[in-house]
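Data availability (excerpt). The following record was deposited with the supplementary files.
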Amino acid sequence: MENPNKNFERTNEEDNSAAENLQSKDAVNNLNTNTPNFDFANFSDNDFINEADHLSRQENQAMDHIGIFTAKSANKWIEGSKTKPIQKMLFAELWFEAELCILFADTNLGKSILAVQISDSISRGINIPGFKLEAPKQYVLYFDFELSEKQFESRYAVKNEEQKIFENHYKWDEYFIRVEINPDAEIPEKTSFEEVLNESIEQSIIKYNAKVLIIDNLTYLKTETEKAKDALPLMKQLKALKNKYGLSILALAHTPKRDLTKPITRNDLQGSKMLINFCDSSFTIGESSTDKHLRYLKQIKARNIEIMYDTENVIVCQIEKASNFLQFELLNYGSEKEHLKQLSTNDKEERISEVLELKSQGVSNIEIARRFSVSEGAIRKWIKKNNPK
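Predicted structure:
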């Protein structure tokens, strides 16, 4: 017997199918009616092209990052570099824009004098005679952790001996901003001095929108820069600041006691390994043994150009106070050897005595060699010759 509900079941299936079709059409209609009403007249073809390029660059940058690395073809690196300006000279071939440069020397050789002179030059947009300046006039933040307000004044004014006052002061450009630590400033609890110092430096950069920083000296940023473990975080921090704000940084540093008969090398910089490895460039000031007023500048490291002022071509200067401005004056160029101390017989005997004394105290040959800037083999020969036992 034929099922009486058969046609009825078929009819339900057809009805369900029809209902689904109606829902699909409604959904399509809803999509059409809910499409955002963009006014395409407000957008040009270039707008769409630029947005597409922007999204494409973002995608490519994401693909270039591999963990802590950025990996691109050499051609891509060159294309990216083409959009960046060529670095200009700030202090001849010794310091360029966007470099972290270290100027180091022994105490009382004129590091601060030269650094202030460079600051004045950049803030005015006028070169120091004999030294090229390619960068335009701009703000310079000079962090002075060495001189007091009165000491600074004394260098850039004329002293009236009768009245015991300073007069005829040097007139600085308003783009030269000298910064010193406020002795009345309070350090928040659970915050170290170094943290507050670094934060204050960054706030100063933002306030003046400065791109040139001179730090006198590194000791105030980290008290133990001669140790590698302390120098590494310091240099990373300076690098991070440089990259974040597009800065040019000149940092002053001291040298420990050195042998004045030997040429100055990167090993004479306090904490030399880490500091030199992480900086972009470095130069030093040496004292001439021929005249206590003479100084020479020697290039230690360069990345932008070939080293020009090496031991055979140092820049010879004198320190002079022309009226109300203490400064370096370029005299000529020469060999570093001409300015090194010559050992007398007494000097040699004193040196041998010091070596033997250090050895008796248990100091290693390697450490003694480092202190006298000679090879470990030379120390062994001195000891063997003068202390056969």
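Summary of structural features: Confidence is low (pLDDT under 50) at residues 4-10.
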